[in-house]
Amino acid sequence: MRMRSTTGQEIYIALTSGNSVVIGTDYREVPKEFRREALMLVGESIEIDGIKTEDINHEPKPADNPEKYLVDTIKKMIEESKTDEKTSNFTASGLPNLNTLRSKAGYNVNKEEMLVAWYLIQKELKTDDEETIE
Fold first, then answer.
1. Residue-wise pLDDT tens digits, 92-133
2. For residue 97, what are the contacts with CB-CB under 8 A and spacing of at least 6?
3. Alpha helix (H) ranges present in 10-110?
4. How far apart are CA 24 and CA 9, in angstroms?
5. Could you tell me which of 89, 93, 84 has the C-alpha nearest to residue 73?
6. In whole angstroms, what separates CA 62 from the centre of its chain?
């Protein structure tokens, strides 16, 4: 696997076996025994075959509008529950399962964010019902 440093400085990796490697600004083949340690140096900005590790290992960010992103994610969970009764996307009280939502959203959603998104879905459904009545 070819790696290089994108910080402009050399990155030194040493193992407890006494072996070491230096990853410089030019691509170099990194021996297998050092790859794990090199991949863990996310903050050092190592590039692997043209892909920056911080692009791979960062915490996914929601869309520009996180409320809409969560609303859309919960709607997908609702659709999944309709097609597969075995999925546990919702709690016994009917709220979205927070752990499942975190997994589907791809980031650590807190309870308040989930409740706001759930409220927006309920409000949207109520508005849709009122429009069909009129």
1. 888 999 998 988 887 888 888 899 999 999 888 887 666 655
2. 88, 89, 90, 91
3. 32-40, 53-57, 66-83, 98-105
4. 7
5. 89
6. 9
